[in-house]
Amino acid sequence: MLGPHLLKRRRGLLRFLCIPGQSEILKIRKLYDAFRAEFPLCFGYWKKYADHEGRLDGVNKVFEVYERAVLAVTYSVDIWCNYCQFAISTYNDPDVIRRLWFQYFVG
């Protein structure tokens, strides 16, 4: 398990890699995956990762990140709000949002 000093170093590296215009997506994914493996409940980093994917690789990857996020941090209201807000802004179709809602909350 990472100690506080390694957590601080990883956060610094994430900040460096997340500079707008940075395009080494495979390295960024690897770093985020390593960080989230150690700290899966840091919901803010799920959001940052989704935003980064959206800038560099498109909508489908963002949905994949949010799908993984809601499985890892199921009870995070922030993650759910971000996921639903993203879905609403991406698809102007209430049926898509309804399916998302029922998939996780009802079914």
Describe the structure.
- It is a single chain.
- With 107 residues, this protein is mainly alpha-helical.
- It has a domain at 47-107.
- It has six helices and no strands.
- Helix 2 (25-38) packs antiparallel against helix 3 and helix 4 (59-72) runs antiparallel to helix 5.
- It starts with a helix and ends with a helix.
Which features does this protein show?
about 110 residues, mainly alpha, 6 helices, about 0% strand, globular, mRNA splicing, TPR-like_helical_dom_sf
How are the secondary structure elements laid out?
Layout: H1 4-17, H2 25-38, H3 43-56, H4 59-72, H5 77-90, H6 94-106
Poorly predicted residue ranges: none
Instruction: Give the helix proportion (percent range).
Output: over 70%
Tell me the distance between the termini: 35 Å
Q: Calculate the mean pLDDT score and round it.
A: 78
State Rg: 15 Å
- Given helix and strand content, the structural type is mainly alpha
Largest sheet: none
The total count of helices amounts to 6
Proportion of residues in extended strands: under 5%
Strand-and-helix sequence, N→C? HHHHHH
By DSSP, the count of extended strands is 0
Shape: globular
